[in-house]
Design goal:
Shape: elongated
CATH architecture of the largest domain: 3-Layer(aba) Sandwich
Strand content: 15-25%
Number of domains: 2
CATH class of the largest domain: Alpha Beta
Radius of gyration: 19 Å
Structural class: alpha+beta
Number of strands: 9
CATH topology of the largest domain: L-fuculose-1-phosphate Aldolase
Order of helices and strands: HEHEEHHEEHEHHHEHEEHH
Bound molecules: 1,3-dihydroxyacetonephosphate, zinc ion
Distance between the termini: 60 Å
Amino acid sequence: MKKIDILQAPFVKEMIATTSNLYRLGWDERNGGNISYLLNEEEVSLFLDVSKVIRQIPMIFDASQLAGKYFIVTGSGKYFKNIVDAPAENLGIVRVTQDGTKLELLWGLENNAVPTSELPSHFMSHIARLAVDPENRVIMHNHASHLLAMTFTHELDEKAFTRTLWQMCTECLVVFPEGISIIPWLVPGTNEIGKATSEKMKETRLVMWPQHGVYGAGKDMDEVFGLVETAEKAAQIYTYVQAQGGIKQTITDENLWKLAEGFGVKPRQGYLD
Ligand code: 13P
Ligand code: ZN
């Protein structure tokens, strides 16, 4: 069967639109940030002959739990601002080998490019999220400015950090009732940061990397983008509130409970009085 041009694939278009938006928001300076998006074989097969492997790419960790799975990923060292004009140089479609130690490149990552250096955190997070939500498909990392700034000024206690974000915009509790997790500062690109991130991903779809950025997970691009965007907006409001002289009044726990009831969400246990 004749294949459709890969640039017409909805998942390629979504990657281009999302990375362009992220760049314009200023959260992905230079090569900052990365996205991995789980695809199924049927949707990839409409555009690519999946038996044609361009090359193999070794990995530094065991991804055998994702054996045979397909992902579209951003390339390491690639600038989000350039993706729209050169998708095949900056994005790649890969499949995890059966032994979980390599990737098979099926499209993109031209000129010997490799997937994001944050692949351990992405793949370990996919494994963790899929275990609790079989529909999870996207992991996104970026350097959302106000959230990142808050990791310098706000105490790095998960409950306190979550409560502050929930109080900054009424919608926050509805969008991330499970809260936001925080890992210690760790060297990016390592298995260690991957393990720490994915451990938190079992409970929350948002994970802060202090003095670095944020990780988000979701069923689709809109969910993960909306999640990060909402937390980042709350962090922006927090920044303004602090600049305007600090909090004089906020949303009470009583009202947060009413909100949870009204929208049918369950706030993280123990986070509200
Ligand atoms: P990559 O260019 O390898 O994706 O790394 C960017 C980044 O944000 C590292 O944390
Ligand atoms: Zn980063």
